[in-house]
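QUALITY CONTROL LOG
STEP: pairwise intake check
CHECKER ROLE: data steward
CRITERIA: each record must contain a sequence immediately followed by its structure tokens, with no blank fields

ENTRY 1 OF 2
RESULT FIELD BELOW
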Amino acid sequence: MIRRLLLFAVIFLSAVMGMAKTYLAKPSMSTKALQELIDQASNKGGGKIIFGQGEYLTGQLELKSGVELYLEKGAVILGSTSPFDYHHVDTLSAAGDRLNDKSHLGLIVARNASHIGITGDGTIDGQGLALALTVDSLHHTGVLIDQHYNVRRQRPSELVRPTLFNFLGCQDVHIEGVHLRNSAGWGLSFNRCRDMVLRGLDIFNRAYWNNDGIDLTDCQNVLVEDCKVNSADDGICLKSYDPNSGNDSITICNCEIRSSASAVKFGSASYGGFRHIRIQGIRVYDTFRSALAIESVDGAVIEDVMADDITATNTGNALFIRLGQRAGERKGVIRNVRISNLTAQIPFGRPDIDYDLRGPEVDYFHNIHPAPICGIPGNCIENIQLDNIKITYPGRATKGMAYMPLWRKGDVPEQIEKYPEFTMFGELPAWGFYLRHVRNITLKNVRLSLANDDFRPAIVDDDVEGLYTEHVVTE
């Protein structure tokens, strides 16, 4: 009877208003019932499904073309805590593609859909901790074996932990206003999608490991605006798994980010490209790793990147730019990057001390790390502009803790094939910037300050051609 009434509403309102709207009753509904509503609305040419105040418990749902889910204030979609309510969906593949290293599962999935949306002032809660612990228990009891179980870290792999959203090959996507909570893995995962607007989202994703906020993989024409992200892993992350594709024309603006990893990051998956990226008005707090990390280590071309007006408070590193080579013979490119109006405060202790899930610390003695901008021998980063940069470091470096004197700067390991991270080189001979294998870099209106003494120089360069400085102050 419920199905008939709701189907009638779709037909009636579609005829009257040109847009189907289905109002859902308050009681929780099953996955099957919700999926039937989505399918019916899509088959009738599209429409809006409205979730009124109340809780709706569901397993995996597939969003179809033309359908918008609208959550009124007080509406809560709860993800099932049983892994049997989620299933793998078809994925695209390409040469060099590593899609098999992440989850194909999601609470809300979409495949090759167009004109879709999730809007409103309600909440979508993946109940990720309970779900992940159920997956863990089923593995140890032999009921549901995870072939890639992480024995060292004692947790199930990403392959068996659903994301909150998992969209592939979609276009004309609009997600706005909703409160997004507690995935078992990544938060919002978009792969090879285009023409997307993510606006005014409130993302709190700290329930379990690998809890990224937003992941954009090989996407084009995307606006991420006015979002708040608090994540146990990277906040907003651009990735590329397809060497014939890449992220293009991405704008990230007016966002607030907290992370137990990096706030805004390119990589580490970096096979294709990152072009025409604009980052502006970002506020970063309590972030364990970098406020901004730009990494090409799998052959990606990163070019035409502009980042402006970034303020990072209590953050492990202000800026990390890395050109490496871990994907065989494929050489990447980083060029034409401009970063302006960046202000950062680096603490002496770990910034994410209040997180339940804290980022893994390195296993060697070290003083506070500087901000590295490093290519590799024979493949240099090119054309970097840093303008109006203010970074305050804590100092307190001692030769007893670690000692890499300036005369031994050539002994810093290249780490060509290593996973990229600002701590990857070990102890460094500078406290402010460490520049290596770079061609044409401009430091203009740069102020590097120490709260306490540091025996190292502020800036060290090694194999750098065309270092231009103007109004650089170290104090």
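ENTRY 2 OF 2
RESULT FIELD BELOW
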Amino acid sequence: MTIEINATTRKTQGTGASRRLRNTGRVPGVVYGAGDVNMIELDHNELYYKLRAEAFHASILTLVLDGKKESVQLRDFVMHPFRQQVQHIDFQRVDAKKKMHIKIPLHFLNADIAPGVKTGGGKISHVMNELDITCLPKDLPAFIEVDLAKLELGHSIHVSDLKLPKGVEAATHGTHTAEAVVATVQVPRGAVEADADAAAAAAASAASTAAAAPAAAATKGAPAAAAKAAPAAKDGKK
């Protein structure tokens, strides 16, 4: 499904002009890439609701600029610090012959039947929710599936374990490596604390028992010692 967004050429620039534009329900933006850099403006409400859709962030969009269509991808946008207002937006033109670098959402499947959850009592932890990829525009997927069906307690799924569509590669850089963790099954924190408390209680009980043993032995041996001492005292008197 093609996502279209309408825009018109912005004739005024500068901080004051952008502020006045926002006050009329419009959003300033820019389109760059192959060709000229175009200053644009868009309807705020249309843009705001499109930004709420996952696909808008990870798809090739059709920008209708002054009635002319061109393929772009969302590069950046700025929101107001505390209002639900888009302040600015950037688009980049897409070249069908060049690989693009984009973040794609991850969709997690079968978490409820993962052995680490179903029989191990663990909880799935999503370390990543999106993946950096490179591909040609024609190979761009809407999302990437992460199958958790075989994930055991204490085990993890790494970037290298993902089944990527044909023509799609993970963009490994910095800490984002092939062995970077995508998801893991962990024992719930409460269960870990309960086990630790139980172990501490058992250790304390064992220590108490060990300490009490010598005292009990000493108490038990006292009557015998007294009995041996009594005849000796009698012999002394004779």
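INTAKE CHECK: passed for both entries
DESCRIPTIVE NOTE, ENTRY 2: Helices lie at 15-23, 44-51, 54-57, 115-118, 189-237.
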